[in-house]
Design a protein that fits this description.
Blueprint (H helix, E strand, L loop, with lengths): L13 E6 L6 H17 L4 E6 L10 H9 L5 E5 L3 H11 L4 H15 L4 H6 L4 H11 L2 H8 L4 E4 L2 E4 L14 H6 L2 H4 L8 E4 L8 E3 L2 E3 L12 E5 L2 E4 L1
Parallel strand pairs: 1-2, 2-3, 5-6, 6-8
Antiparallel strand pairs: 1-9, 4-5, 7-8, 9-10
Length: 241
């Protein structure tokens, strides 16, 4: 991957379309999926794999429709939706975890609203965390919840490794810690060495997608006005999709 190594590649006949953090930006997701559908129709002989690097929910206005859209799968594609730290926070809130309140301060209130929770009324009553939790559980469709709970942390294909936040340098990819896969930043981002495979990730917003020999960052702040960035990987070629 670096030095004299060959360029990372995926097996012939496969097309991977990977995209960054959606954060409730349903319109941008739909626009991307329209382009995906056009490409699948144009190249029906290829195996298309659509990969989300996580963070479907929070901050943007339409988390519930985003989850529902991807939970249904995408016709003509193998759809891989990875867990993000925001999904992890949301599930921790639903389960009554110790850091449940953290989710509310990181965009969770907008997600609750997207599921039809009447927050204006609830907040006026000075609710407990338990009250807010029950309100969300009452509104979230069971298949959304089971979908979110079943998200894998990583996906691999050829010389590429897909994950939400990144990996810890010096640790084999098959021995990574869940906390790092969901949350790591500086130790991963500042490392210029070889991870064993080229990492495709999101989690840390950048103005434009970052392409380095050892990693690609696809989080371009869709919920902050940036684009929902996707890349097409075929063989050893990687292009903005």
């Amino acid at each position: 991957m670096q030095g004299d190594r060959e360029e990372p590649r995926i097996p012939d006949g496969i097309s991977i379309i990977a995209f960054g953090d959606v954060h409730g930006s349903y319109d941008k997701l739909e626009a991307l999926l329209e382009r995906v559908a056009e490409r699948v129709a144009e190249f029906p002989e290829r195996r298309h794999v659509l990969v989300s690097v996580g963070d479907l929910v929070d901050r943007g206005p339409d988390s519930a429709p985003v989850v529902g859209r991807l939970a249904d799968g995408v016709e003509g594609c193998e759809t891989v939706v990875l867990a993000g730290n925001h999904e992890a926070m949301m599930l921790d809130f639903i389960r009554g975890g110790e850091d449940a309140q953290a989710w509310l301060h990181n965009g969770g209130l907008r997600t609750m609203t997207s599921y039809g929770v009447d927050l204006e009324r609830l907040l006026a009553e000075r609710p407990t965390l338990h009250t807010l939790r029950l309100a969300l559980i009452d509104k979230i469709p069971p298949h959304h919840l089971s979908f979110l709970m079943g998200r894998p942390l990583t996906f691999e294909c050829g010389d590429y490794f897909f994950v939400h936040a990144g990996v810890r340098p010096g640790r084999p990819l098959d021995q990574q810690d869940e906390e790092d896969l969901l949350w790591i930043r500086e130790e991963f981002l500042d490392f210029d060495g070889d991870f064993g495979k080229r990492i495709v990730h999101g989690h840390t917003p950048v103005d434009v997608a970052t392409f380095k020999p050892n990693r690609i960052n696809l989080d371009t702040g869709a919920c902050f006005g940036g684009p929902l960035t996707a890349v097409l990987i075929e063989g050893s070629e990687v292009t903005i999709f």
